[in-house]
TrEMBL record:
First and last residue of the signal peptide: 1-19
Name this polypeptide is given: Endoplasmin-like
Amino acids binding ATP: 75, 79, 121, 126, 134, 140-142, 161-166, 214, 416
Segments passing through the bilayer: none
Region spans: Disordered: 257-295, 447-469, 755-791
Length: 791
């Protein structure tokens, strides 16, 4: 029983001790206020009602106005920057305005225990009346009043920009406290609200703790506790506000190495002075080793997050090449320097400053998400990031361009996330596109002029040095073209207003370019005087196109032809239609016209009459073949058979109609996952078979047809020639079995074998019996033994 009472007594003592500890903990400080301070504030606070239907409006702000939670930090930092700007403005008029608080800065800190974030600025601050009038009226912007007062020449003594943006704090907080002190009010005041229909304003019982400025403290919701992290705060602040002109600091915790304090060592020496002689040498060595070990100490420091400067605000003459390169890497996250850049100020209907960069390398997934990818140009308003990616700043084909656009008077909606007037965006976009195309044009022109200068001879040393520099720069446009040629071709296809500018940037292989891509201007310079069109052909590769029968007459006449191995080349030229008054003409289509003399025309007319029996007969045969014969399912429609002007070596060639798909286009369309077979069949165009009147096979075929139109050998030859011409011209045969059977028969005849001979099963000789082989082996072994014995 005595033991039980003893246990109960101990428990009671422990409870009493814990109660005392709880009372001590209850006095903990949150946001600089103790419980006693808060009790005083509660007694003397004034309660006010918001001047708007706040419950509904707050719900709109929190749930509808903003799409991203972390913009709250952008809005609060922007407000702080505006307050700092006003303080700076007043300090210019009155040197004593800043007083003891001369540093204009923004500081951000978090308290993990209290679950709060605080944004402190040394700006102009607010009086009690300012807190009530400006924070008590939702969507009341002090900056708007400030600008109005400045325009009227009135007093500029207004608060920072606390409009709707201030209330974005309730995205992450269920309670917001604003402590503020301004020069015009000797008392520091505290404004608090929980996003309900009321707020309180009270004198700060702690007195003047800020000196001048404002401290906004957010009591975070449970789902926003991830912002109680140094890295998260630094990331968000840097993302949106890295170019704010005032320094932004985030409070970070660091561990540093410290040496043992000398005072402690001196005390120990005094206490142990009498025992010094008795200490062993070993102990002294151990003590020395312990002293040498670094000790860790936790310290808090203010780390600046907006070290990157807004170089677009400076004159381009004042910005170095290295600064441009570093700035590009910071906004693009690219490890390479930019290929080229343009820095300009736009003036007129809307004014803005911009720097645009062309990268050296294309992203590996650039064309994978071409239709959904947004422009990578960042949009700023007064150095505050509004949008990292914007749909309407640049067209899709220029989505590889990096850079910034900053405007002071861009019309935004209240959330800063959308522009209110599409007209303004169109003006900005038009200017940006023009600047980018001018930059590309300059690159292309520099490269071509550099090449021309290298051909000229010069004796002066200065000219040689200039040439050397140009030679070093040579290839910039070529490098760019290799990386981004598909984008420019897509732009040529999509951008009607800039198609003529883009056409001057295009580069193509030709039959005379010796493996290099040349501009259309160079092609025009090399055109023959009588040539009226720009000729082109498409195919899978340059090597394949060089062997195409359609090219033969152009090589003979020394006419240059554009060679298009890329799938985007042909649609691009078809959209262009002409260049400098010269129409683009495909040599793989039936409408090709070449210069002829009167004698050549008369001769060709006579040849057509000579071969009319063959062409008429052949047309009838091919119609039967494609409509009811072996190629019925191939979808090939034959329009006509005629004597060719383009063939010099091959016996036949197949070309398509003027407005139908070329062979290359047919392949591309057939490879589409969601192809429309009916549309493909309609757009494929009707085929024309052209024959070479000088080829021995055609001459022999004409003779056979004249002798007998029912000649079976002639029919088979005509069918095989048409099918092989389809393949050689780049078209596909849906069912090649008919062609294959003819090829097998021709091979049989070549080998002297009857192609119609029936198949016979081959007789395989029977294997000899195994026992006999074993007996034979035994006899050989016995003979070998006898020979050895004789030896």
């Amino acid at each position: 029983m005595l033991r039980l009472w003893a246990v109960l007594a101990l428990l009671a003592a422990g409870s009493f001790a814990r109660a005392e500890e709880a009372e001590g903990e209850a006095e903990k400080v949150v946001d600089g206020f103790s419980d006693g301070d808060r009790a005083k504030m509660a007694e003397s606070s004034e309660k006010h009602e918001f001047q708007a239907e706040v419950n509904r409006l707050m719900d709109i702000i929190i749930n509808s106005l903003y799409t991203d939670k972390q913009v709250f930090l952008r809005e609060l930092i922007s407000n702080a920057a505006d307050a700092l700007e006003k303080a700076r403005f007043h300090s210019v008029q009155d040197e004593t305005f800043l007083g003891d608080t001369k540093d204009l800065e923004v500081k951000i800190e978090h308290d993990a225990d209290a679950k709060t974030i605080s944004i402190i600025d040394t700006g102009i601050g607010m009086s009690k009346a300012d807190l009530i009038n400006n924070l008590g009226t939702v969507a009341k912007s002090g900056t708007t009043n400030f600008l109005e007062a400045m325009a009227e020449g009135g007093d500029a003594n207004l608060i920072g920009q606390f409009g709707v943006g201030f209330y974005s704090a309730f995205l992450v907080a269920d309670k917001v406290s604003v402590t503020s002190k301004c020069n015009d009010d000797p008392v520091q005041h505290v404004w608090e609200s929980s996003a309900d229909a009321s707020f309180t304003v009270v004198d700060d019982p702690r007195g003047n703790t800020l000196g001048r400025g404002t401290r906004v403290t957010l009591h975070l919701k449970e789902d926003a506790h991830d912002y109680l992290s140094e890295d998260k705060l630094k990331e968000s602040a840097k993302k949106y506000s890295q170019f704010i002109q005032f320094p932004i600091y985030v409070k970070v915790k660091k561990e540093v190495d410290v040496e043992a304090e000398e005072d402690d060592d001196d005390d120990k020496e005094d206490e142990d002075e009498e025992q010094k002689d008795d200490v062993e040498t070993k102990d002294e060595e151990e003590k020395d080793e312990e002293d040498k070990k670094p000790k860790k100490k936790t310290v808090f420091e203010w780390e600046q997050v907006n070290t990157q400067k807004a170089i677009w605000l400076r004159a381009k003459e004042d910005v170095t090449e290295e600064e441009y390169n570093e700035f590009y890497k910071s906004i693009s996250k690219d490890y390479l320097d930019p290929l080229a850049y343009t820095h300009f100020n736009a003036e007129g209907e809307i004014e803005f400053k911009s720097i645009l960069f062309l990268p050296k390398k294309a992203p590996f997934d650039m064309m994978d998400n071409y239709w959904t990818k947004k422009s990578e140009v960042k949009l700023f308003v007064r150095r505050v990031l509004v949008a990292e990616k914007f749909d309407e700043l640049l067209p899709r084909y220029l989505n590889f361009v990096r850079g910034v656009v900053d405007s002071d008077d861009l019309p935004l909606n209240v959330s800063r996330e959308q522009l209110q007037q599409n007209k303004i965006m169109k003006v900005i976009s038009k200017k940006l596109v023009r600047k980018v195309l001018e930059l590309m044009k300059k690159l292309a022109k520099d490269e071509e002029s550099g090449g021309d200068d290298e051909e000229e001879e010069s004796e002066e040393k200065e000219e040689k040095e200039e040439k050397k520099e140009k030679k070093d720069e040579e290839g910039l446009w070529t490098k760019f073209w290799k990386e981004f040629n598909k984008n420019l071709k897509m732009g040529c296809y999509e951008d009607d207003s800039n198609r003529s500018k883009l056409s001057k940037l295009l580069r193509f292989y030709t039959t005379k370019s010796e493996g290099k891509e040349v501009s259309l201007d160079k092609y025009l310079d090399r055109m023959q005087e009588s040539q009226e069109s720009i000729y082109y052909m498409s195919g899978d590769s340059i090597e394949t196109m060089k062997k195409a029968p359609s090219l033969q007459i152009f090589l003979k006449k020394d006419l240059e032809v554009l060679m298009l191995p890329d799938h985007l080349d042909e649609p691009c030229l078809q959209k262009l239609a002409d260049y400098e008054g010269k129409k683009f003409v495909s040599i793989q289509k039936a409408d090709v016209k070449l210069d002829e003399t009167e004698e050549e025309k008369k001769k060709f007319t006579k040849i057509k009459d000579m071969y009319k029996p063959l062409t008429d007969w052949w047309k009838k045969k091919l119609t039967d073949l494609t409509e009811s014969g072996a190629m019925k399912e191939a979808g090939v429609k034959v329009e006509k058979v005629e004597v060719s002007k383009r063939l010099t070596e091959s016996p036949v060639v197949v070309v398509t109609s003027q407005f139908g798909y070329s062979a290359q286009q047919e392949k591309v369309m057939k490879s589409q996952a969601f192809q429309n077979k009916e549309q493909l069949s309609m757009m494929a165009g009707r085929k024309t078979l052209e024959i070479n009147a000088n080829h021995p096979v055609i001459i022999d075929l004409l003779a056979k047809v004249k002798a007998s139109e029912s000649d079976e050998a002639a029919s088979k030859t005509a069918e095989v020639l048409f099918q092989t011409a389809l393949i050689e011209s780049g078209f596909e045969i849906a069912d090649p079995s008919s062609l294959v059977s003819h090829v097998y028969k021709l091979m049989s005849k070549e080998l002297g074998v009857n192609p119609d001979a029936p198949l016979k099963e081959i007789e395989v000789p029977e294997d000899e019996e195994e026992p006999e082989e074993e007996d034979k082996d035994d006899d050989e072994e016995e003979d070998t033994k006898e020979e050895k014995e004789d030896l």
